[in-house]
């Protein structure tokens, strides 16, 4: 039997992730059945689960990918820029609407909660580092602990995702993000 190249394996993994992202966006976490993931990727369950242990591992791989991408932007440009990117290109983040369903799963499934929190740590760490650097440079307020600012920005991000996922109007959200950005800046 011929050996499959690493490039081909990476390309197949990418196909699976792209198809699964579309499936999760369309059907939500619970509605993205293995059959639907097969249809969305055009691959068999054997091919899919050769790369991922199960549906949860596949979803967490997507979450990890997005957390890394968001962490890179947050580290360089700040979490508010991540939110601006989500607002400007919601189609690139539409699967995050499943976070509404994930909130329920986080409350009821401790193993899922542990895995999700581990994947979310990248974004929080990058945001915390950036805020610390901003505070040291005098750009951010110093009357509130940095950890509180991270939680504040994370809550705003969750609210933005909820608003987008539920189809609410977004016309005035750039002004809201301006306000959020201003609220963390130093006024000294």
From TrEMBL:
Gene Ontology molecular function, alphabetical: DNA-binding transcription factor activity; transcription cis-regulatory region binding
Keywords for this entry? DNA-binding, Repressor, Transcription, Transcription regulation
Segments forming domain HTH tetR-type:
10-70
Q: Name one Pfam family in it.
A: TetR_N
DNA-binding span(s): 33-52
For the keyword Cell wall biogenesis/degradation, the answer is: no
Q: How does it assemble?
A: Homodimer.
Please give the name of this protein: Putative TetR family transcriptional regulator
